[in-house]
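Take a record:
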Amino acid sequence: MWKTLSLIAVVAGAVTVASPANAGSPVCGDRAKVIDSLSAKYSEEPIAVGVTSNGGVIEVLKAPDGQTWTILFTYPSGPSCLVASGEAWQELEEKIKGPAA
């Protein structure tokens, strides 16, 4: 769980400094339509979600086999934009930290 939260924190930080105006031509649209499209085309479903300091929502989606993944950012004003996508998603083993380690 911490690995996913760490990933979300890093990506959220990058997203909060980016905007559609300085990101070139981001792929954006209605969240429900974007999620439906990723589900239909790649079988991707949300596996992690977080709220950024500016009120946006960041989501990590992946295919069940991990072959594809997408990071989606939904702005407080409504549009959802693809931030990143790729292949070969891998879960990392969680390490125990603290006194119990």
Observations:
- The first helix runs from residue 2 to 17.
